[in-house]
Amino acid sequence: MPQALQHDLALKSGRNTAARQDFVSSLRGFILNDLAGGMKTRYTEEIAPKAKKELGHLPKTGPEVHNAIASDLYFKFYSSMRYNAQEMVWRSVIHPMNEDLESLNIKAEKYGKKANEIGGSLDLDPDLTLPKNATAIDVHLAPGGYTKENIANDCAAGALYDNGLNVFSFGMMGANLDDIGESMANYIRVKYPEIKPKAILDFGCTIGHNTLAWKSTFPDAEVTGIDVAAPCLRYAHARAGAQNKAVHFKQMNATKLDFEDNSFDIVFSSMFLHELPLKDIKTALKEAHRVLKPGGLMLHMELPANKDLDPYDGFYLDWDAYYNNEPYYKKFRDQDYDVLCTEAGFDKDNLISFITPQYTYMSDADYVESVKNPSAFGENTGRLASGIEWFAFGAQK
Fold it and tell me: What is the pLDDT of residue 375?
């Protein structure tokens, strides 16, 4: 079930709202664990052997698995349940958010001022042309997406994302939904002790939930998060103030960074690249290379490439591309990540990839040991289920 968000911008939750959100969160957990496990068993024992007779071989790719399973009643039931549960996540938040909107805006203004006072900033660009991949569809089925603004100084899309993600993740992404950022930042702290970052950039930061983790891990660094969605950035700025973190937020497209060459020690993103068309991914990676200092590190938390997975796992992780309004997901994961990095200008000898367990669910000592001895990990990368691990790739300039 969802945990209570650990900051003052969290929406009020009466008994009815809490019960509804607990149900939706538990339902998602059941779907992604129990139902998903049953579906894989059904595929292995019944669907794959039948497909082998028809194809002359077991399905060799994710699309072949998809074709084999698409007409199966179990898969249809699983997909229907998962799709509807996704919509239920947002519906469980929208009503309490609308009821609490006046209070939310007051608190957002209050904590936005606090963020400024402690050294953070918010820089919005009213002339920025918003990309169609962010405006033409309701990404993740979130009503209005993340860019819709209803009133002046609106931050509702940010609140929807924060509280919705908390229900969505059923307690598996950290107390403040920051486990990805904490895990990535602390991996770098342990694995690359020679890197002492003074400037860190997070692009596609939405509400800054993972951005703040870099400030926590490297408090002396100047941390900047960019996104194209103004309402999310307003919320991110206030959220940082509510957590006493001095972070800069700027409205900016990752394909055209308004920073000088050699400006950052680390460029990071989490579950962002797959939201972009392939041509924009390539441009964003080139921009990351441009703004990195020599010796700087580019790091992207994503799901593994399809070439590195067996056909069923590739199919399973591509589900969102077909059914969850993430049309660019599969196209991205069909790429060779190493090739994407070298085409962006990074040397092939400086490429990195790794899998890390969740930092916020273990002691620091155990986490350090896991980084030093990673062979025990790598069975469940990026899935919201028991024993999550995060995958990342990138390169050093």
Answer: 59
**One-letter amino acid of 262:** N
Report H helices in 192-335. 211-217, 230-242, 278-291, 311-317, 319-323, 329-333
Contact call for residues 334 and 302 (beta carbons, < 8 A): no
> According to the 3-state scheme, what is the secondary structure of 291-309?
HEEEEEEEEEEECCCHHHC
CA 333 to chain centre: 15
CA separation for the pair 120, 117 (Å, rounded): 7
Q: Does residue 333 contact residue 317 with C-beta atoms inside 8 Å?
A: yes
345-397 pLDDT, tens digit per residue, is 999 999 999 999 899 999 999 999 889 887 554 455 556 555 688 999 999 99
Separation of alpha carbons 79 and 85, rounded Å:
10
With tokens 């070439």, the residue in question is 307
**CB under 8 Å to 386, separation ≥6 — which residues?**
33
What's the pLDDT at 358? 92
Q: Which two tokens stand for residue 164?
A: 């919705």
Q: What mean pLDDT is predicted for residues 211-232?
A: 98
Rounded Cα distance between 252 and 258, Å, is 7
Buried-state track 327-366, b at ≥16 Cβ within 10 A, e below 16: bbbbebbbbebbebbbebebeeeebbbbbbbbbbeeeeee
Asked whether 124 and 233 are in contact (CB, 8 A), the reply is: yes
At residue 101 the predicted structure's pLDDT band, cuts being 50, 70 and 90, is confident
How far apart CA 198 and CA 339 sit, in angstroms, is 29
The one-letter code for the residue type at 388 is I
The alpha-helical segments, DSSP class H, found in the chain are 15-30, 36-42, 48-55, 62-69, 73-99, 101-117, 132-135, 156-168, 179-191, 211-217, 230-242, 278-291, 311-317, 319-323, 329-333, 337-343, 364-372
Q: Are 23 and 17 in contact (CB under 8 A)?
A: no
Query: Could you report the per-residue pLDDT of 128-181, keeping only the tens digit for each?
Result: 999 999 999 898 999 999 999 888 889 999 999 999 999 999 888 998 999 999
Cβ-count burial of 9 within 10 angstroms (0-12 exposed, 13-18 middle, 19+ buried)? buried
